[in-house]
Amino acid sequence: MLRPNRLKQRLRAGERSIGCWLFMGSPTAAEILSHCGYDALLIDHEHSPGGLETAVDQLRAIAPSPVTTLVRLGDNIAAPVKQALDSGADGIVAANVEDADTLERLVAAALYPPLGKRGAHFTVSRAARWGLDGDLYAANADKELLVIAMIESAAGVAAIPELARVANVDMFFIGPLDLSASIGLMGRYTESAFVELLDEAERRTREAGIALGGAALPGHDAAALFDRGYAFVTAASDVGLLRDGGLQMARPVLRT
After folding, report:
1. Where is the HpcH/HpaI aldolase/citrate lyase domain (predicted)?
2. How far is Cα 21 from Cα 171, in angstroms, rounded to an integer?
3. Residue 36, SS3 per DSSP
4. CATH of 6-255, one of 1.10.40.30, 3.20.20.60, 3.30.300.30, 3.40.190.10
5. pLDDT tens digits, residue range 26-62?
6. Which active-site residues does the annotation give?
């Protein structure tokens, strides 16, 4: 279902964008959040229980909204890239990228020849409206695609200059929890060593001229990240919104 990529358009225009993670595998949650003003929704396949068929149901639920749909890969290999894109996702998010070879293979899997090596399936794919828009999809898919590499380790931060030389990568997205864990400080976001590593990741990304993305976290909310030059921030998740809303409603009752 080829359509303009809202997040990619906003990145090109230099506009700040906000996103929300989908961890529950729930089409209903995805549908609700698609109407809440987010620029992108990220379907997680790295940690979450949903599979490809669940993702298709989520994509169908989101489809009436112009929000960009991204799939975070479970593995940084070619097969899930093709499956996610042929199912109708607007882009991919690769977790914990630490070397250019891996990133080059993922980009190649996402782009049609001559830019890449993506297999042609648009004659029958859902992304091409089951082949009804095959020619249109083939001609425009690469232009609308988003490829995002997550930087989630000290090794990934060190590799940013190398990663930035890979063509057709739209964003480096800093994953703060795994980044802190990579230096033995899991979740300890105020520790000076973590702050310094985060600052280095941000600086290297800005110097490379790649759009900077990341997740809001305690002490580093969306407003603070935007002030530091982030173009895209994930500020919420379906699980977090439901959990926090549930706690907010239940706790006053339990105290009475």
Report:
1. 18-243
2. 17
3. coil
4. 3.20.20.60
5. 999 999 999 999 999 999 999 998 899 999 999 999 9
6. 47
